[in-house]
Amino acid sequence: MPPSSTSLPSACKTLRELDRRARAALVQYLQDDGEYISLHREEMDGGDALPAEPAVFADAMTLYGIALWHQDPFGEGDALVLDYMIDPERSDQIPPCPAPPPATSPA
Length: 107
Known about the structure:
By secondary structure, the chain is α+β, with helices and mostly antiparallel strands. Helix content is 38%, strand content 12%. The protein has 3 helices and 2 strands. The longest helix has 25 residues, at 8-32. The radius of gyration is 17 Å and the shape is globular. It starts with 7 loop residues before the first helix and ends in a 22-residue tail after the last strand.
């Protein structure tokens, strides 16, 4: 079976839809458990300027990374992980490792 190819516009549309659904799930999580927002507003430098409303907070988050897993490491059925951060510049979370530099051909 040949590999499937997805056009860039189609892939971007799919990513936008995944992002929309992920942010909706984030809003629900933040509404159910306000500790995440409280922690960042109280403990992060400049946190008092962060939104307190879950929908606004989720909208302000940056999609920081996308991971594909061969198998879901958490056993929850999803092999795609969208990683969001509220303020990557001020966060004390460890960001994902940067991609290695491209290989260069020997001269």
